[in-house]
Amino acid sequence: MSSDTMTxxxxxxxxxxxxxxxxxxxxxxxxxxxxxxxxxxLTPGSRLAPAVVRVPLRAATDTEVAAVALAVSLTPGxxxxxxxxxxxxxxxxxxxxxxxxxxxxxxxxxxxxxLLAALRPAAHPDGPDAGRPEAARK
Length: 138
What we know:
By secondary structure, the protein is of the alpha+beta class.
């Protein structure tokens, strides 16, 4: 067997691991968001702090941008309002719990990093951690 065919199973294993890692992360985030929204409905008093935040994207292709926008909108308490591709890609996101816009933007950006790591090939030049702050890597 040539060395090229030996790397195909390894690349496939890396991709599967990344997809499963994102699926687990997103499932936990989805449950947490559902519980927060349910708690808001069931208890008196409001902890809502709605805001609309611009989130710059690293997503390069239309598929990546659409996947990020969809993942954000699937999470209860968040909604993608607008997608801008020029001059730089960005989402405008409404959050029910966005009292701290910087922390909210960081959470959406973390979701994007994890999703791109799952979507992009292992050898992608803008790999999952390219340009990512060291503190944000897990």
